[in-house]
Amino acid sequence: MDNSILNPGGTLGIIGSSTNGVGLVIAARNAGINVGVYGDNENTETMELADFRVVGALNDQQQLQNFAERCDMVTYESETIDASVINFLAAIPGFHKAPMRLRLHRTALWNGRFSANLT
Fold it and tell me: What would the pLDDT profile of 80-94 be if each residue is shown by its tens digit?
């Protein structure tokens, strides 16, 4: 599978279960994509909307790798994920790596200047 394209019937894995992920889950499901969510709190709307969910620590590399291997493509939606975890996961095929985005996102939050256009 081309890791840059996720077709209907494929599985998107989302790491992080904050309210930021709700729109991502809905958009993916509307496109016919199955969604798995990995997070440290099973009682979130993002987790409830997922086709499958895995609850675990956001720094548990073995658990994260097991989750990622169940998905065709993996991304993250939370600024609470440490950049070292993102770098670890980058070695897994299909992982959407954007640690610079994570660093910029954290800086913007720290400075009180969050931008909804940050990609």
Answer: 777 788 788 877 766
Token pair belonging to 24? 């991502």
**pTM for the complete prediction?**
0.74
CA 27 to chain centre: 14
E strands, the chain, in order = 11-15, 34-39, 52-55, 73-76
Would you tell me how many other CB atoms lie within 10 Å of the CB of residue 1?
11
DSSP single-letter state for residue 92: S
Amino acid at 19: T
Contact 95, 6 (CB under 8 A): no
Tokens 């992982």 correspond to 95
